[in-house]
Write a structure and sequence with these properties.
Number of strands: 8
Radius of gyration: 19 Å
Strand content: 5-15%
Keywords: Transferase
EC number: 2.5.1.98
CATH class of the largest domain: Alpha Beta
Strand order of the largest sheet: 1-2-3-4
Organism: Thiomonas arsenitoxydans (strain DSM 22701 / CIP 110005 / 3As)
Structural class: alpha/beta
Helix content: 40-55%
GO molecular function: transferase activity
Order of helices and strands: EHEEEHEHHEHEHEHHHHHH
Enzyme class: transferase
């Protein structure tokens, strides 16, 4: 099998989890040939080869393309949530949860430092933003979502509270039982949050968080899909200057809002029962996968 995972201009924690998690659960399954294994991420989309079998194991439909037509070469074990199931014309019992929840199978022990607060931006906010500086001003730990998976996991497990713009920051925090607060993401990303929350009984209540630089602000107000939006997203000298010339008061405003999120917003966690049910159903699907595909073995 070939393990499929999205990779943009920078590595992203949620997508890189695929390369970290699946070998730990299934062993040496992925040799880079044959069927596609589509696990963590909003990776159910059009554009895959119509001649290759696609094995869906906890991925979601994110609305970034039209929904694919699922023919006999799409084999769906389960999807991220009810919104994905509806969009793809699947029965609701296929909506089990985001496969990142399977991190609970690895026995990671949460060792939170009392009083510690961390902030994890979306990976697309790291380069244009001034979030690391804002976190220093707010006395909040900055978690870089483009850092190695082990580094990010340790930071989430060590925080007493996670503020996160990144969905998989919330998913992994929730799975490890680290309370979290969702900071307002770009509107285009909100469907996937609601999709994940739908199977855990979570209504996502996003807290407002202003942009940390002039460049981030310009990106937010530029019309989506416009030439201007494309120019502002390019990593070049002109755009980095717009980021670097952001005045201190603007960054201080972002820091103030981080502090406000940490002190005035009620953190969230799904119920133990809902999370345990989702995890148990995923474990069942792992067993089905090994027996049916004839490859891999559940290692934990």
């Amino acid at each position: 099998m070939e393990l499929y995972a999205y990779r943009g201009a920078s590595p992203n924690f949620g997508d890189e989890l695929n390369h970290w998690l699946w070998p730990r659960l299934l062993g040496e399954v992925f040799d880079g040939t044959g069927d596609l294994f589509i696990g963590i991420g909003s990776t159910i989309m059009t554009g895959f080869s119509p001649k290759r079998r696609k094995v869906v194991f906890g991925a979601g439909y994110g609305g970034y393309t039209e929904p694919p037509e699922l023919d006999a070469l799409w084999d769906v074990y389960f999807v991220r949530g009810k919104l994905s199931a509806t969009a793809l014309g699947l029965d609701e019992d296929k909506a089990i949860g985001d496969a990142g929840i399977l991190i609970r199978s690895l026995g990671i022990v949460r060792q939170a430092v009392p009083g510690s607060v961390a902030f994890m931006p979306h990976w697309e906010s790291v380069w244009p933003g001034r979030w690391e500086q804002a976190c220093r001003l707010a006395d909040v730990q900055f978690i870089d979502p483009t850092a190695p998976v082990d580094t990010v996991l340790a930071a989430i497990a060590g925080a007493e509270l996670l503020l996160t713009e990144a969905m998989h920051g919330a998913i992994i925090a929730d799975s490890l039982r680290t309370p979290w607060v969702a900071a307002s993401p770009e509107p285009k990303h909100r469907m996937k949050w609601n999709d994940w929350g739908s199977v855990l009984g979570l209504h996502i209540d996003w807290a407002h968080l202003p942009r940390s630089s002039w460049l981030e602000q310009a990106q937010r107000i530029a019309p989506r899909g416009s030439v201007l939006a494309g120019q502002l997203s390019a990593r070049r000298r002109a755009t980095s200057t717009l980021r670097d010339l952001t005045p201190t008061w603007w960054v201080e405003r972002a820091a103030h809002h981080l502090h406000k999120l940490a002190t005035t917003h009620s953190p969230r966690l799904s119920s133990d029962a809902a999370l345990d049910t989702a995890h148990a159903r995923m474990r069942e699907q792992l067993g089905h996968f090994v027996r049916r595909e004839g490859i891999g073995r559940v290692l934990v």
